[in-house]
Amino acid sequence: ATKAHIKLNTKKLYQADGYAVKELLKVTSVLYGAMNTKGVERADVSEEDSSKFKFDLGSKITDLKAARQLASEITSKGASLYDLLGKEVELREARTESIARPLEINEAEKVMKIAIDCVLEQVQKTKDMLNNVALDEANLEAKIEKRKLELERSQKRLQTLQSVRPAFMDEYEKIEEQLQKQYSSYLEKFRNLTYMEQLLDDHRRTEQEMFE
User: Fold this and answer.
1) HEC letters along 116-141
2) pLDDT over 70 for what percent of the chain?
3) CA 25, CA 19: separation in Å to the nearest integer?
4) CA distance 62 to 65
């Protein structure tokens, strides 16, 4: 209807009665008039004029495509309009019932108050969670800082112990040196003793073989 420049009263269309039929007649009248106009134009053209008339094939094809598209859109819109008009009776009853129903302001205020309270409660819970997170974060940072200080003190104590030489260290090193010498002497004597025992065993074995 918009592309054909036809003004329709949608309110009368939705009523689905005789007024709706009158509105639909506007569309059919335009189509019917267009068909009659084409017929009259064809009748008025004389044989002499027909011989001089130049047929613009490209223009006619364009007009034909536009007419087909318009007819397809009118059919589609008509089907949709038919479905909507079929639901109008039911929708009109529901609409009338809703309009006639008294507006309970107190009940609406009660529902709105409950909804607002729920939202405020959720907001408060969110704030509490954020506060708890901030508190936990502060406690964790304090613990980390405490551990850092303890680690620094332990490292300083270790460095101090490593730099200080115990009072008994000199005596310890002296005794350690003496023990090392004693151990070296022991090894030498042990090797000599073992060698001498081996020689003695060989000598005894030789003598025994001679007596036999």
Assistant:
1) HHHHHHHHHHHHHHHHHHHHHHHHHH
2) 69
3) 10
4) 5
Q: Are 38 and 109 in contact (CB under 8 A)?
A: no
Q: Hey, what are 76's tokens?
A: 């589609």
Give residue-wise pLDDT tens across range 16-46.
555 666 666 666 666 666 555 544 444 444 4
- pTM of the model as a whole: 0.27
Q: Which residue has the tokens 């009118």?
A: 74
Report d(CA 119, CA 125) in Å as an integer. Answer: 10
What pLDDT, on the 0 to 100 scale, is given for residue 9? Answer: 59
Amino acid, res. 94? A
Tokens read off for 13: 């269309």
Rounded CA-CA distance 70/78 in Å is 12
Weakest-pLDDT range from 10-14, 36-40, 99-103 = 36-40
Q: How far apart are CA 134 and CA 126, in angstroms?
A: 12
85 contacts: CB under 8 Å, gap ≥ 6: 13, 14, 16, 20
Work out the pLDDT band at 180, boundaries 50, 70, 90: very high
Between the CA of residue 185 and those of 40, 142, 146, 189, what are the distances in Å?
Answer: 146, 62, 56, 6
Q: Is the dihedral of CA 81, 85, 87, 92 positive or negative?
A: positive
SS3 147: helix
Measured distance CA(116)–CA(189) in Å, rounded: 102
Q: Kindly state the tokens that stand for 198.
A: 């081996």
